[in-house]
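Project standup — Tuesday

K.O.: blocked on the structure for the chain from last sprint. Re-posting the sequence here as requested.
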Amino acid sequence: MRPGHHKKPLDSSPPLRLLFWESTVRCNLACAHCRRIETADEAAKEDLTTAEFRRVLDSTASLGKPIIVFSGGEPLMRDDWELLAHHAKSLDLPTALATNGTLVDAPLARRIAGAGFRRVSISLDGADAPTHDAFRRVDGAFDRAVAGIKALRTESMPMQVNATIATHNINQLDDIYSLVRSIDVEALHLFLLVPVGCGMEIGESHQISPEQYEKVLNWVLDRQADGEIELKATCAPHYYRLAAQRAHTSAEPASAMASQHGRGCMSGVSVAFVSHKGEVFPCGYLPVHCGSVREKPFAEIWRTSDVFADLRDYDKLLGKCGRCEYKDVCGGCRARAYAVTGNYLAAEPSCTYSPARQVAE
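H.V.: unblocked you, prediction finished:
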């Protein structure tokens, strides 16, 4: 489903905060929530070339200074990641690297630090090797990822641990938190699984319920009060609704809450995703085509895409999301809505909240 919308003027687009680049589909692991590795080498033949992504960076620089996140697949399996990181730096574009960490030894850690990345994220999808390795489907992946983190910390690289939360590790939240603190990492970001795109590889038995989703977010809010490390929930816009509920005994105007807490779903609003073959999507979990960087400059797509215009117009949200008093701070996950209904403006299916304003559907 692709609701129509007139194109907005070129100067009306909001600032781009994060551009995620799926630099390649090639990977050395075979994770439960990702593409099947046996098809990756063939698909990788369509990866953007060095010259093509240089042009994406050049175009993106006209939008300000968004963070360029080198992701994948496994971005370190490209031969030109250093060259492209240095090109981004020459444009004054900050960069981050999202890697599984298993390839990182001391020499590679020095190269990563020398490439100017502001932060490196490595995924640990469990508090111990059996849990992580079963999810990543490679024995030894946990130990190699932890070794990669330690090698990068030796180079004083700021580090973030990402953890995909599903039924396999939802009871390990405290243990994951303790592990991250013990290995001297600045940040822990919990990713609430989205059942679309690569997330569809995980069966329904691994999906957490809306009630469990809410429980995880309340755990995050409780732990954040400790202030020990940077702790965030990602792909979890309800967090901002819960934060607003905790902070306000009665709902303030949405604009005031948005100013204080930010907005949950940033898909197409301040975030965009470029696939390995140049397709532009609102985020990595919302596979709705907005254009191709092989056909027009990224900045033009960001400014003129009808899909992006829809996502930026909160009054277009449907169902209970459309009438929710928290829609300007939450907005619901547009990717989950799309996964369940085929409509990225539909109500968020994993939300337990009932809006105060009830109208006939």
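K.O.: great, moving the ticket to review. The longest strand covers residues 159-165. The CA atoms of residues 183 and 304 lie 44 Å apart.
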